[in-house]
Amino acid sequence: MSVPAADRGTTKIADRAVRRIAGRAATEALAPGEVRTDRSTASVRGRRARVDVAVTLPYPTVLDESGERVRSHVADRTARLTGLVVPSARVRVRALRVRPVKAVEATREAAEAGGGARVRRPWSARRVPVAVTALVAAAACGVFLYDVLAVHAAGRTPARWRADFMEWLATHGPHRGVWPGAVAAFAVFCLGVWLMVLAVTPGSRGRLPMRAPLPDVHAAIDRRALASLVRDAVSGLPGITRARVRVGRRGVTVRAGLAFGELEAARTALTEAAERVLGSSGVARPPRLRVRLRTEPAWRAPVRGGEDG
Question: Which residue segments constitute the domains of the chain, with CATH numbers given?
Answer without folding.
Answer: 13-98 (3.30.70.1350), 127-200 (no CATH), 220-295 (3.30.300.20)
